[in-house]
Description:
Elements: E1 4-6, H1 12-21, E2 25-29, H2 40-49, E3 55-60, H3 65-75, E4 79-82, H4 88-94, E5 100-105, H5 113-117, E6 123-127, H6 143-150, E7 155-157, H7 166-173, E8 177-180, E9 185-187, E10 190-191, H8 193-207, E11 216-217, E12 220-221, H9 227-244, H10 247-261, E13 267-269, H11 271-277, E14 281-286, H12 296-309, E15 314-319, H13 323-335, E16 338-344, H14 345-350, H15 352-360, E17 364-368, H16 375-388, E18 393-395, H17 406-414, H18 416-429, E19 435-439, H19 444-450, E20 460-468, E21 489-494, E22 497-502, H20 526-533, E23 537-543, H21 544-558, H22 564-575, E24 585-590, H23 598-604
Parallel strand pairs: 1-2, 1-8, 2-3, 3-4, 4-5, 5-6, 6-7, 7-8, 14-24, 15-16, 15-18, 16-17, 19-20, 19-24, 20-23
Antiparallel strand pairs: 9-10, 11-12, 13-14, 21-22
Helix pairs in contact: 1-8, 7-8, 10-12, 11-21, 12-13, 12-17, 13-15, 17-19, 18-19, 21-22
Bound molecules: pyridoxal-5'-phosphate.
Amino acid sequence: MIRIKICGITNLADAKAATDAGANSLGFNFYEKSLRRVVTADAAQIRSKLPKEIETVGVFVNARPADINSLRAFVRFDAAQLHGDETPDIVSRVSSSLPVIKAFRVDANFSPATLDRYLNAFAFLLDGSRAGQYGGTGQTTDWDFARRAAASHRIILSGGLKVENVAEAIRIVRPYGVDVASGLETKPGKKDHARLKEFIDEVRPILQSPTTAPGRFGPYGGRYVPETLMVPLFELERAYEIAKSDASFQSQLQSLLKNFAGRPTPLQFAARFTAHLGGPRTYLKREDLLHTGAHKINNAIGQGLLALKMGKPRIVAETGAGQHGVASATIAAHLSLECVVYMGTEDMARQALNVARMRMLGAQVVAVDSGSRTLKDAINEAMRDWVTNVRTTHYLLGSVLGAHPYPTMVRDFQSIIGREAREQILAVEKRLPTHLFACVGGGSNAIGLFHAFLRDAEVKMVGIEAGGRGTELGEHAARLAAAQGYAGARPGVLQGTYTYVLQNSDGQIATTHSISAGLDYPAIGPEHAWLADQHRAQYSAVSDSAALDAARTLARTEGIIPALESAHAIAGLIERRAQFTRDDLVILNLSGRGDKDMDTYSRLL
Ligand SMILES: Cc1ncc(COP(=O)(O)O)c(C=O)c1O
């Protein structure tokens, strides 16, 4: 979305000069008193001549939401920038149909808390102030204030930016985007094309550097994809931003989660398991009881609804353990979408039950026989399909992986796990847990549990990875367990995101091994990489055989056969049993049930 926005566009020549130079966003000012006001018919004509990926923003001052909508039907701008005294309620109403940039003039009396009241704003534009004047003022904004605001909000810096000062401004503020109008004009509403190009040449490399790109978790995350995927990713980001505040989307989502998937899931006290361990008091978050048998359905429902909103009749998905494939096929059948699932042949053999389920649900399962014939290779093929069929197809990615917005969006869809668990534990134990445990493949069930507790510094979070057969590269899928001797993980880019990746000394992606198909992947979700660097969460790995033993222990103490993935989390807890005190209170995410793994269990146990 908005990174370099050129505002006050009144004619096609300026619009072309701006986009040819590399601007991603253009502003049409509809405020009748503005010196840069554009005639509606001209704006509609300019919009129609611009490439689809260029975003246009309608700029308004105290306009009525209904008027904004009717103008939009004509001009087809992609976002509204509200520059007057609009209340949070007005912003929320406008944002039910398109993303809103709420603009503020920052003067000595402006309070940072004001931004927090505008929950539905997509971004905030901060402008310099001049008494009594609405719209762009040409005055320089307080960069120090903007820098503080940019630490917790999406900030588009505006106000007095020009070729000479913009690099310095970005270095100080680290904004999400910059906006310029008067600084590049020969007269109001007419741009100086040479200066426009100079300005964009100055800004582009800095705003595209890893530390300022969208969807970052510290240095991790980002969006490393071929050009053809940028447009669908922007489209998805925008659709998701709108969906967040769209009442009808939210009510459909809540209804499906409750009536179709079976939420809320119980938080069950595992009394016999606790006694067997000799403490700590352990509660199981029973995601295994959801329809289709794992947490994956939470995300599949959210993205299935988004595909409908975007008018895409076809979804593609990848799957390792088959649970995400089954969840995708399920929601596709329920919402009448065509569904194609890519799956490595190694995984098809070990998760045969799920292959049959997907086919019964009407999905086409495409066997992937390249590379290690597991999840990474399935993702490659799904991305290839997406690039080829992007107009009709949504890529329903199954974990907190891939390019922005996937890691954030999938996390948000899964964070219902932690929100429920937090409420449930407070209701029964009247206190927060001391520890959270979850297995980590890409990391979606783990971050889904962790997210609601991130600000509770006293709650320790533990992610358990696949230690496979040993610590040598190729024998495991442990990306954040170097402290235990698991070799080969370094920061790198895989499948659109910058994160810890298992690789050899030449940077070639390593093969991985895990008994559990859902954990058998060489990279980890970028937010986990960041949580690990900050020591906010701890990560370690357990072996195949420890996971098998743990599955049997849970089956025999609680009468629950866990998925092999979840069995890793149980093994991680069992291995730490000596470190707990009597007061410790654990929530363990039981991400899925073990039906799909019965072949493996019956062979090896
Ligand atoms: C039951 C179950 N748990 C966990 C996972 C791992 O995925 P994630 O780390 O995204 O939760 C999978 C993946 O297929 C799974 O099926």
